[in-house]
Amino acid sequence: MASKPEGVAERPTDEGASGFPEHDARVAALRRQLAEIPAHGQVRLAKRTSNLFRSRAAAKTPGLDVSGFTHVLHVDPETLTAEVEGMVTYEALVDATLAHGLMPLVVPQLKTITLGGAVTGLGIESSSFRNGLPHESVLEMELLTGDGRVVVARQDNEHGELFHAFPNSYGTLGYALRLRIRLEPVKPFVKLRHVRHHDPREYFEDLGETCRTRSRDGEQVDFVDGTVFGADELYLTLGTFVDEAPATSDYTWLDIYYRSIQQRETDHLTTRDYLWRWDTDWFWCSRAFGVQNRFARRLLGRRLLRSSVYWKVVALERRFGVAAKILRLRGLPPEETIVQDIEVPLDRAGEFLAFFQREIPISPVWICPVQQTSREVRWPLYELDPDALYVNFGFWSAVPLEPGERDGVHNRLIEQTVSDLGGRKSLYSDSFYAEDVFWRLYNGPAYRAVKRLYDPNARLLDLYDKCVRGR
């Protein structure tokens, strides 16, 4: 067994509130911060980074400093679990678990996504067809609620209602300070097969059959995702854990992963590089920054080719609007930003793709199947049919507006189409729903019931205010 990585605590023997004295001290300090804020005032997290893409008003409410909650507290290879603080990035978490030959059940694609953020704001990846969404692997959550309590919520305890409502609440019901999650064993390498299709109907049939059997040509399939480059160029990428690899590719610097999908039928990556295969180029969004040029990549080096750097550039663009000014100077029409992830049932996936290719000129599009792992558990703020396989479509770009079109017209059309097809849309980016529609889609009665119990004075933002109004 590999040695314990630096920064990962041993399981303590002197059990305190959580069993981790240094963590408990950070919790006590956070509660003191909250107590210093007037009881009638709203609060928020003071975070240096974010993977959200919503337009937000300048913060006028006090911020709780959670920058210290970045520790992997314990990894237990025997029980296949980890105790992790809420602000731990998946990059740090993966490094800690891989040292034990383990990984989280679902690892979202970008290194700086935090575990707490993925649970309260959802996440997805190529293991989601068998492991669901990140919150489904959580066994226990220690939460700071809006009324100032620190509660430990589990599926079957007195805070079970909060436990189930926390996913898709985006910090409006409380903040995750510590989580206990399940892990799974890994092998050193992942073998990839990029299977091209020319017909969308056959493509989604193949995706569904592969997810159902979890195999291809007698070989186990551990990961499934896909990339659509055009109406007749659709790829399924099937990943399988293997003990050995004839050679491994490196997409952390000069070579670009998504281009390899069109160029290779098979490939091998280390497991760590597979988990972060999309981060180097932020899927394909690095092309917007001009860094897919080989000379530029040599100049920047590995350290700057990562999603967190691109996100900072986007944040500056949102602040100063340089791109919009350049479009005006060049006499080009304004553009509408479309950054969305949506899910529709597999049997409606072909309809959504046809609509998207007809109405929204964005390519490539990422495809990722997801199915809830349990028929018995309900996640009221993001309900999926537990008997259905869903297809996630991810698309991140901008489209020109025609004369007379208002900003948001394409996003509203996408939202309506997704609803018509029985799907769901993630709320990490701009949303345009009318308030009554929003609460119908995201279970307003269930949300308000839990909100009354754990944030009766509305010290935390309301979900609609945060995700649609951008407050």
Describe, in plain words, how this protein is organized in 3D.
This protein is an alpha+beta fold. It has a domain at 25-185: Uridine Diphospho-n-acetylenolpyruvylglucosamine Reductase, domain 3 (2-Layer Sandwich), CATH 3.30.465. It is 32% helix and 23% strand. The protein contains 16 helices and 18 strands. The chain has helices at residues 21-36, 90-98, 115-121, 128-131, 160-165, 200-213, 257-263, 271-275, 294-304, 307-320, 322-329, 346-359, 409-420, 435-441, 444-454, 463-467; strands at 44-46, 63-65, 72-76, 81-85, 102-104, 138-145, 150-153, 174-185, 189-197, 215-216, 219-220, 223-230, 233-242, 266-270, 335-345, 365-370, 390-400, 424-425. The protein has an eight-stranded antiparallel sheet, sandwiched between helices. Strands 3, 4, 5, 6, 7 and 8 form a six-stranded antiparallel sheet that branches. Strand 10 (215-216) and strand 11 form a beta hairpin. The longest helix has 16 residues, at 21-36. The protein is globular, with a radius of gyration of 22 Å. The relative contact order is 0.13. Mean pLDDT is 91; it is low at 1-7 and 9-16.
